[in-house]
Amino acid sequence: MSNAHSGRAAATSGSATDLMPIVPDDQADLPTTATALYVEVGGDVAFVSLRGATRTVAVADMTILPVQVRRVLASGTTAGGLHAFTIGAA
To answer: Region Disordered: what ranges (predicted)?
Structure first.
């Protein structure tokens, strides 16, 4: 199948090219910056935004959190089933 987006720079908006599970970690950034998070089981999500701000937000089950995230923190995160929406070349 042909990819019309091949060779183009990745956008920071639009549909994701992948959805990857997240294991919260206080020390390590995600392998790829998330353009949004999907949370299966509600609770608190503690994260470091793309701009470097540390935030904690309470979310419900099956929430999409539309914020660019570089790290999801283990400390303070009680939500479960976390996934990162990512955009990149296919």
So the answer is: 1-24
Closest CA to 36 of 15, 57, 56: 15
Compute the distance between CA of residue 6 and CA of residue 64 in angstroms, rounded to an integer: 27
Instruction: Please check whether residue 43 is in contact with residue 80, taking contact to mean a CB–CB distance below 8 angstroms.
Output: yes
pTM: 0.82
Strand-pair category, 69-72 with 63-65? unpaired
Would you give the DSSP letter of residue 47?
A: E
Tokens of 70: 């570089």
Question: From CA 19, how far away is CA 85, in angstroms rounded?
Answer: 5
Give 72: exposed, middle or buried? Use CB within 10 Å, 0-12, 13-18, 19+. buried
